[in-house]
Amino acid sequence: xxTAIPLAVPSFDEEEERxxxxxxxxxxxxxxxxxxxxxxxxxxxVGTPHAVMTSSCTTALHxxxxxxxxxxxxxxxxxxxxxxxxANAATYTGADVRFADITSLEQPIMSAEATEAQIGPRTAAxxxxxxxxxxxxxxxxxxxxxxxxxxxxEDAAHAPGATAxxxxxxxSLADAGCFxxxxxKNLVTGExxxxxxxxxxxxxxxxxxxAHGMTATTWDRDRGHASGYDVIERGYNYRPTEVEAAxxxxxxxxxxxxxxxxxxxxxxxxELLPARAGRVPFADGxxxxxxxxxxxxxxxxxxxxxxxxxxxxxxxxxxxxxHYSPVHGFTTFDAAAPPLPVTEAFSARExxxxxxxxxxxxxxxxxxxxxxxxxxx
Length: 377
Description:
Blueprint: H1 14-26, H2 33-46, E1 50-54, H3 57-67, E2 75-79, H4 85-91, E3 96-100, H5 112-118, E4 123-129, H6 139-148, E5 151-155, E6 176-180, E7 193-197, H7 200-210, H8 218-222, H9 242-272, E8 278-279, H10 287-290, E9 296-300, H11 305-315, H12 341-349, E10 350-353, H13 361-374
Parallel strand pairs: 2-3, 2-4, 4-5, 5-6
Antiparallel strand pairs: 1-7, 6-7, 8-9, 9-10
Helix pairs in contact: 1-9, 2-9, 3-4, 3-7, 9-13, 11-13
């Protein structure tokens, strides 16, 4: 059946088309002036002195861990309720990961108490994931990091434009923040990621590592700013393209309005989804108003309802997903995890419903009706 209501769709129009065409006509496609402009604009939006664009959020995370000096013998604490890239990126440095449980079904973000329980003599960093675009209270994590001399990283892949309780932007709340611009994200460039930080040394190290450890880029040499280069690190090819940066500049300008539409749609979902069937997390206070509302997780009261909802949704052309299968359950990580009962309970009951700025209120009503009909009283 044709998908009538997709899970996620990029919000593009003629502006993005013109931006890409301008890049093609310029004949300069690799990392260059648009990347620099996008980095400057993104840093300003987040409120950090530095932003370093990369080829993906995964590479942003890897560069951040590497720039912080994390390596063999170290451990990084991450949630299991995340995309596998969060854990993978830490292991690329030779470090090991330890998984911490989430707080509750209502607050499916890594628990500070569970994180503290995982801190050991080899712990080097804590990576907090802003699940679904909601930023937790970072102060308990900052206290843990300070007390144990640990690095603190935000995996803000879901959270461009989100803020904490005090209004500070996601990406400005730790030693570094890492963002994703994948095709299903709030700000879309196709692929691409960004590191934000106030640490000049971290930013400089990440810039060097993302381009083979070279002291000068192709763009530097083309402009006559360098005639050659040295290689001072064993770096990587994690460079973004000018096409991605051009899309990013347009999307960044639209981000506040797109996020506001997402918040309105989440409010509509909260009104229409049947309470007897389950709940949308983060229902406390003004959480939606501060969130980037990246995805719409619905937690079924009965685990068996998830499959009934997904089957009914597929039959009516409504796309759904699951966020996430716990990382500690994957073969490559299953030996690294303590018991994570709350994560496992959440993952067994969660179904992700469509959410993107192109949706109408009527679309939400259709999805809510699917959930209602699949979970009769």
